[in-house]
């Protein structure tokens, strides 16, 4: 039911505005969304005049290759271990075996292209190939990205000048 509501809202937004603009998305749909221009939306916080914490949806400089006007499904956000009110991201999460177990799970890895693309590029930026990390996660439950980096140098894929490493098709983990 939630998915139908999100889809209907997305279609309404696109139909009435003509394009998906991060700054016009409600906070509850911001994280893991991609604008019409192909840039990722990110949730930021700021303090209001009375000191209360406010969330704002902003357009990032990071480009999501081959994804435009996309809102990741709630099921994906949940199965990959995230929350829509997540603020910021870090490659340090790839060092956490519990995080990589969720990211590499079939429910996340095979069904959630935006999240997987984002972390694929983040891993490449740290010299790790996400499919190798996921394969290792399955075979050595708990082997961290740091261990993979020490054991096998990786230079998969070209790096773009803006937005970090360039996306490549994801092979199965």
UniProtKB/TrEMBL annotation:
* This protein's UniProt keywords: Signal
Work out whether the entry's keyword set contains Signal: yes
Among InterPro entries, the record links this protein to: PAR1
- Does the keyword Signal feature in the UniProt annotation? yes
The segment annotated Disordered runs over 144-173
Spell out the Polar residues composition-biased ranges. 144-158
> Which positions make up the signal peptide?
1-18
PANTHER family, sorted: PAR1 PROTEIN
Return the protein name: PAR1 protein
Taxonomic lineage is: Eukaryota, Viridiplantae, Streptophyta, Embryophyta, Tracheophyta
């Amino acid at each position: 039911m939630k998915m139908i509501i999100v889809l209907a809202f997305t279609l309404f937004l696109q139909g009435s505005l003509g394009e998906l603009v991060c700054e016009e998305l409600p906070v509850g749909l911001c994280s893991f969304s991609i604008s019409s221009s192909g840039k990722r939306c990110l949730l930021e916080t700021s303090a209001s005049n009375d000191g209360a914490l406010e969330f704002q949806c902003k357009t990032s400089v990071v480009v999501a290759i081959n994804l435009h006007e996309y809102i990741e499904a709630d099921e994906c956000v949940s199965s990959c271990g995230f929350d829509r009110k997540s603020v910021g991201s870090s490659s340090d999460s790839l060092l956490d075996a519990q995080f990589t177990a969720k990211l590499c799970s079939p429910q996340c890895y095979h069904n959630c292209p935006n999240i997987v693309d984002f972390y694929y590029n983040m891993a490449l930026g740290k010299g790790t190939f996400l499919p190798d990390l996921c394969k290792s996660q399955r075979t050595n439950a708990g082997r961290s990205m740091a261990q993979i980096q020490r054991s096998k140098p990786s230079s998969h894929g070209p790096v773009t000048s803006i937005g970090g490493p360039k996306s490549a098709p994801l092979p199965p983990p």
